[in-house]
């Protein structure tokens, strides 16, 4: 009997909130973006616990009262924290969390580009063999060292 009382009370309250089909669709959409505070990663529309049902009832009340989506999300974020939002706002510390992977990817790309560009420059520095003589790596190394010694960079043979 005690278990039926809250269910009957919830049914009575939901019957008093006669929403239009558009309002009910909006309430379901808003509820699908709110996380159950007890369940892990489950929206309140899919959670069977009492807190989620209470939150969904509150969403319906606020939709019936004509509050905007932003106001409803702000209400639940103020009450439960930003954790309750399945799609938290991308501002403040959230921007850092969203932007850090992109910044890391850009930095990694820049390092890779610099490494490949430096390697290509070193390869271009070596004198390419002429068509008349075959490539001799020993001769190329001697020529490179003599060029450095002649320009005053040191590093004799």
TrEMBL record:
Signal peptide: 1-18
Region (Disordered), start-end ranges: 122-157
Transmembrane stretches, start-end: 95-116
Stored Pfam families: CcmH
Keyword terms, alphabetized: Cytochrome c-type biogenesis, Heme, Iron, Membrane, Metal-binding, Signal, Transmembrane, Transmembrane helix
Residue ranges of coiled coil: none
InterPro entries for this protein: C-type_cytochrome_biogenesis (IPR051263), CcmH/CycL/Ccl2/NrfF_N (IPR005616), CcmH/CycL/NrfF/Ccl2_sf (IPR038297)
GO CC annotation, single: plasma membrane
GO biological process terms, semicolon-separated: cytochrome complex assembly
Name used for this protein in its record: Cytochrome c-type biogenesis protein
